[in-house]
Amino acid sequence: MKKIVVISGAGISAESGLSTFRDSGGLWEQYAIEEVATPEAWRRNPEMVTEFYNLRRKQLLSAKPNAAHRALVELETHFDVQIITQNVDDLHERAGSSKVMHLHGELLKVRSSVDESLIYDWAKPDVKLGDYCEKGSQLRPHVVWFGEEVPMMGPALREMMDADILLVVGTSLNVYPAASLAYAVPDHTAIYVVDPGDMSHAGLNAHHIRGKAGEFLPGLVQELIEEWS
Ligand code: OAD
């Protein structure tokens, strides 16, 4: 089987009703990154950070996978598919994708703020100040904040090395180190981008389908199956 690596971002979940970050009306227009998504914000104002992620979690619990998430599942009958997502939602998993790597963490998990190996499932809607891990420290979101290491970068880079096809869906490729993955594939890898935005800033040698993932990814998946499997 040929191997497809998918790099997904907030845009793939937009049609499920979850906001992207940098589009007009996106999350980083409504919130300042330095107030909700940095270790300093957590130290200064844990209540605000906790509320921000509680709201994200609440929205996620009422969202459903869309046609784009489902199309990627269909690829698995013909290809070895590895999804590397920057998203903290679980919509790829709920659609049925079997190999999903989360670069920036997961909303439905929390972890100890003193011992990052203590990670807990958290499907309940709200985390409160005063919810502690077994070592007695406050639970924090299991997400990567700006200024923190991205522990999954090593495993993600290894996946790029033998990709026959790279699919980049719904990410502005503005955030590093995640964006660097798109440039880590071998020269012979065929690259497809599905995104309504102008992706010329990324400088990828790619076939760009300029449209929404839910509308255009199912068709691209059929083409890939016909041409490559
Ligand atoms: P961005 O908000 O930066 O980019 C979203 C991309 O999705 C843009 O290129 C849009 O054009 C595209 N888009 C919008 N609607 C779409 C649709 N229906 N179908 C397909 N594409 C669509 O989001 P990311 O690139 O995911 O990190 O952002 C990367 C990281 O920045 C996030 O993981 C998050 C954020 O800060 C952290 O919080 C650490």
Describe the structure.
The structure is a single chain. With 229 residues, the protein is an alpha/beta fold. The chain has a six-stranded parallel beta sheet, sandwiched between helices. Strands 5-4-6 form a three-stranded antiparallel beta sheet, covered by helices on one side. It has eight helices and nine strands. Helix 6 links the parallel strand 2 and strand 3. It binds 2'-O-acetyl adenosine-5-diphosphoribose. 2'-O-acetyl adenosine-5-diphosphoribose (OAD) is lined by residues 9-12, 14-15, 20-23, 26, 37, 86, 104, 144, 170-172, 174-175, 194-197, 212-213.
- Which range best describes the helical content: under 10%, 10-25%, 25-40%, 40-55%, 55-70% or over 70%? 25-40%
| Structure class | alpha/beta
In angstroms, what separates the terminal alpha carbons?
7 Å
Rounded average pLDDT: 97
Q: Unreliable stretches, pLDDT < 50, 5 or more residues?
A: none
Strand content: 15-25%
Which outline best applies?
A: globular
Biggest beta sheet summary: 6 strands, parallel
- The SSE order reads EHHHHHEHEEEEHEEEH
Q: Which ligands are bound?
A: 2'-O-acetyl adenosine-5-diphosphoribose
* Largest sheet: spatial strand order: 3-2-1-7-8-9
Tell me the radius of gyration: 18 Å
- What is the total tally of β strands? 9
**Count of helix runs:** 8
